């Protein structure tokens, strides 16, 4: 059985609507990024406990803290990041979430990623050292404009840090957006996978679409992952425009239906 999760803040700012829409689409985990218009790291401990209580009542768990850690300038005050990872780890404990999503820092425009590698590895290493005090794993998302926006640099991060507390999220659409050969990225990173972000993209024109409708090679990669024993989270991150639905709930359903169609095509149950 596939383990479905989602960025529920794309449904609505309202927690009750988030939970109801997840239930209606058969999704039983949340990658907590935002509620009530507040980013997860800006929530109070009491608010996080309230979220846990409401989700428990609907039999919905938490796959990850969808933090913005690492979406941060390299000339910023790194103490902000250390403070942030400690908050994220606290909230992961409250929610029983096994992962914290993070990024690998913005490379200044026009500058070489290689010139900033040492600083980025140092910063991520310090965040990883905090995670190593817990059972939570830091999960790096390949995002445009950061150090780890290519398959090769994602591999560099995970092998250089060499920690059981640091792994890779595989985001199909983000690799398409950066002009990467998505299957080759999969071959590089599949042994370091934490979980998948489910969104797809067409190359020309560049447009986010439901899973299986773009150039992310989603079905082929998921089929290979399942054959290799993957049983982790498939986390829906819709990012769909209004052509796929007038409301966040409608667009979320389009995203969920796309994934379900892919899973059916590769012979995997939901």
**What strand line-up does the widest sheet have?**
1-12-9-8-7-6-5-2
Question: What fraction, in percent, of the residue positions are helical?
Answer: 40-55%
Number of domains: 1
Q: Radius of gyration in whole Å, from Cα? A: 18 Å
The portion of residues forming beta strands comes to 15-25%
Query: How many H/I helices?
Result: 9
CATH class: Alpha Beta
Q: Which regions contain 5 or more consecutive residues with pLDDT less than 50?
A: none
Quick overview:
This protein has 270 residues and is α/β, with parallel strands linked by helices.
Characteristic terms for this protein:
18% strand; 9 helices; eight-stranded parallel β-sheet; TIM Barrel; two-stranded antiparallel ribbon; single chain; globular; 270 residues; alpha/beta
């Amino acid at each position: 059985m596939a383990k479905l999760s989602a960025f529920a803040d794309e449904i609505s700012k309202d927690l009750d609507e988030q939970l109801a829409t997840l239930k209606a689409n058969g999704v039983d985990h949340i990658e907590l990024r935002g509620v009530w218009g507040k980013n997860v790291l800006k929530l109070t401990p009491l608010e996080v406990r309230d979220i846990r209580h409401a989700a428990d009542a609907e039999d919905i768990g938490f796959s990850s803290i969808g933090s913005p850690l690492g979406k941060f300038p390299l000339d910023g005050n790194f103490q902000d990041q250390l403070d942030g990872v400690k908050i994220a780890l606290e909230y992961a404990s409250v929610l029983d979430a096994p992962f914290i999503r993070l990024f690998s820092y913005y490379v200044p425009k026009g500058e070489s990623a290689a010139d900033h590698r040492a600083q980025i590895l140092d910063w991520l290493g310090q965040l990883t050292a905090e995670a190593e005090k817990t059972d939570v794993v830091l999960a790096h998302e390949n995002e445009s404009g950061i150090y780890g926006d290519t398959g090769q640099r994602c591999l560099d991060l995970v092998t250089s840090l060499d920690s059981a507390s640091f792994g890779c999220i595989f985001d199909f659409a983000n690799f398409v957006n950066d002009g990467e050969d998505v299957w080759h990225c999969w071959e590089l990173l599949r042994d370091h996978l934490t979980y998948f972000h489910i969104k797809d993209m067409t190359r020309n024109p560049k447009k986010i679409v439901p899973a299986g409708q773009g150039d992310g090679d989603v079905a082929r990669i998921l089929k290979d992952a399942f054959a290799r024993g993957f049983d982790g989270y498939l986390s829906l991150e819709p990012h769909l425009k209004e052509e796929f639905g007038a409301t966040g709930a409608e667009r979320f359903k389009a995203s969920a239906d796309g994934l379900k169609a892919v899973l059916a095509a590769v012979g995997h149950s939901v």
